[in-house]
């Protein structure tokens, strides 16, 4: 993850807001330090199905398809 950040973010972007999810590779202290060196860091809320619009759409679609069986 740190290699990715150094290659694609640091040096190219400064003073930007980088939003990450709560994946274990994202909450590593080294990752935090590398991002915070030149940018701001914000973690997304932990996954909740109701905060993800596409999940809601697919749940409705799935329900509709199951009714047709």
Automatic annotation (TrEMBL):
Pfam families: DDE_3 (PF13358). Residues 2-67 form the Tc1-like transposase DDE domain. GO terms for molecular function: nucleic acid binding. This is Tc1-like transposase DDE domain-containing protein. The lineage of its organism: unclassified sequences, metagenomes, organismal metagenomes.
